[in-house]
Amino acid sequence: MNYRAHASAIEVSASLQSRGPVAGLQMSVSNTPGEDGPPDAQQVFKKFWRGPSATRCAGSGLGLYLSSMIAQRLGGELRYQPQNSNVRFELWLPL
């Protein structure tokens, strides 16, 4: 499933951000959702989950699940943080 509208801009940002006593790097990726709309916030990080219209494109439903697991193993966190009408993913990793 593609969470980006065709030919729309993708905003990427990074900043230093501490969580308590731990210094870290906060990265975010934001864009306008595609024709399928934004992802289901309750399902997006579940293993093998694909949206209802995902049959149109190849995929296994593992990308965001694995990304989240890798972030956790590194002591960080990957979150889905929708904002207004945008899809936004945030990754925080300790330095």
Provide the fold topology.
Blueprint: E1 10-16, E2 24-31, H1 63-73, E3 77-80, E4 87-94
Antiparallel strand pairs: 1-2, 2-4, 3-4
Number of continuous helical runs: 1
> Which regions are unreliable across 5 or more consecutive residues at pLDDT < 50?
none
Q: SS-based structural class?
A: alpha+beta
CA radius of gyration? 14 Å
Annotated CATH architecture: 2-Layer Sandwich
Provide a brief overview of the structure:
12% of the residues lie in helices and 28% in strands. By secondary structure, the protein is of the alpha+beta class. The chain has one domain: Heat Shock Protein 90 (2-Layer Sandwich).
Written overview of the protein:
The protein has one helix spanning 63-73, and strands at 10-16, 24-31, 77-80, 87-94. With 95 residues, it is α+β, with helices and mostly antiparallel strands. The protein has a single domain (11-94), classed as Heat Shock Protein 90 (2-Layer Sandwich). Strands 1-2-4-3 form a 4-stranded antiparallel beta sheet. The model has no long low-confidence stretch (mean pLDDT 87).
Identify the notable features of this structure and list them briefly:
alpha+beta; single chain; 95 residues; globular; four-stranded antiparallel sheet; Heat Shock Protein 90; 4 strands; 1 helix
